[in-house]
Amino acid sequence: MIIFQSVIDQFIQYAKEQYPNEACGILVSSLDDQQINEFIPIPNQSSNPIHEFEFEPSTIIKAFHRIEVEKKEWIGVIHSHPISKAYPSSIDVHNWFYPELSYWIYSLLDDQLKAYTIIKGEVREIPYSTFN
Ligand SMILES: [Zn+2]
């Protein structure tokens, strides 16, 4: 998996702005190339945004529409952990139903970005490289 450094920089900036709440959004590639070249922020509408995230539906519907029009592909989700490490919480695992997507977490605690798959509750870290 490849992610553009500019996407990471953009997300980190957004995560800092949303602190102490979790920031979240979706990651997009061009069709079939598996290179993440866009981050789309989605407001976190969770009633407990310090500990979990929930996408605000109207923004995500608009984002999916634009992705389709631009012939891009939704390939991942990203959120921040403001005060904990970059590992999926039990709530994250419980709430996740998209085994085909990559699941990214950035920790503001230690400035780490990690990518995972979560398939039937099993968390597996996946390697990635950055592209300038
Ligand atoms: Zn989380």
Structure description:
Residues 1-128 form the JAB1/MPN/MOV34 metalloenzyme domain. One of its GO terms (cellular component) is proteasome complex. Keywords: Hydrolase, Metal-binding, Metalloprotease, Protease, Proteasome, Zinc. This is Proteasome lid subunit RPN8/RPN11. One of its GO terms (molecular function) is metalloexopeptidase activity. By secondary structure, this protein is of the alpha/beta class. The chain has a single domain (2-131), classed as Cytidine Deaminase, domain 2 (3-Layer(aba) Sandwich), CATH 3.40.140.10. The chain is 24% helix and 38% strand. It is built from three helices and eight strands. The protein has an eight-stranded mixed beta sheet. A hairpin with a 4-residue loop joins strand 5 and strand 6. The longest helix has 14 residues, at 5-18. The radius of gyration is 14 Å and the shape is globular. The two termini are 14 Å apart. The model has no long low-confidence stretch (mean pLDDT 96). It binds zinc ion (ZN). Zinc ion binds next to strand 4.
CATH homologous superfamily designation: Cytidine Deaminase, domain 2
What general outline do the C-alpha atoms trace? Answer: globular
Count of folded domains: 1
- Give the helix proportion (percent range): 10-25%
The count of DSSP E runs of length 2 or more, i.e. the number of strands, is: 8
Give me the Rg, rounded.
14 Å
Distance between the termini: 14 Å
Low-pLDDT stretches are: none
Protein name: Proteasome lid subunit RPN8/RPN11
Organism: Tepidibacillus fermentans
GO cellular component, one term: proteasome complex
InterPro entries: JAB_dom_prok, JAMM/MPN+_dom, VirAsm_ModProt
